[in-house]
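pasting input
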Amino acid sequence: MNEREKLKRQIYALDFALYELALFLDSHPTNRRAMELLSEYRQKREETVAEYESKFGKYILTLKDVPLSDSWQWIDSPWPWDTDFMED
Amino acid sequence: MWQYEKKLQYPVRIKNPNPKYAQIIITQYGGPDGEASAAMRYLAQRYSQPYNEVKGMLTDIGTEELAHMEMICAMVHQLTRELSPEQIKESGFETYFVDHTNGVYPIAASGMPWTAAYIQSKGDVITDLHEDLAAEGTTVKEQPDITTSDKALLHAGFRAFRVLVQKSPPATS
């Protein structure tokens, strides 16, 4: 696995952890440990995305991330259900 | 509203197409206990919930079920790509192929199309949460190699859910 894929997978893993924490917090909104983990993982995600962007350019996840330029880059990258979305 | 994230919750990359597997796996998309049922159930039930905890839980779990649906669809899509006429016939995939070709269509393994009759939304927190407990119970059946500790975790989850249900004041008539 190349470095780009590795960083992408790290971001995906952090996104997963953050989402599951949110689900837990929905029913345990005052749980201090979960709130601490939320803060820790959010920061870690921010750092990982910054590292990705310093090496490979803008990390495009949603429409809001698409850079302003003379063409619409959203449709250029592979789609998640196709086999070329991830590299080995 | 929702905003699309251009990724899967967990990456799907299947090397060898296999229409036989696709016909079984598709039930986790459009079958009675599939992800479409889960997403529709939670996202429908949330409107009439009296508690913020439950509104939040149903909204966010319902959203995650949509992401699960996308992973299953990606699997079906990749398992049925680039098939030869021989592969389609030998695997028994022709009964699906004649109607949908390579399209991904929400049906159960039996061929039954997805129907809202699989779910309930009753406008009552006790009724709806019990329906959700029953639906989540099918997860144990869907994962035959689930470990004992995972099972214990699931059951602990159910117990927490039950406590929440029991804490709820009786529904006003």
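fyi The first helix of chain A runs from residue 3 to 27.
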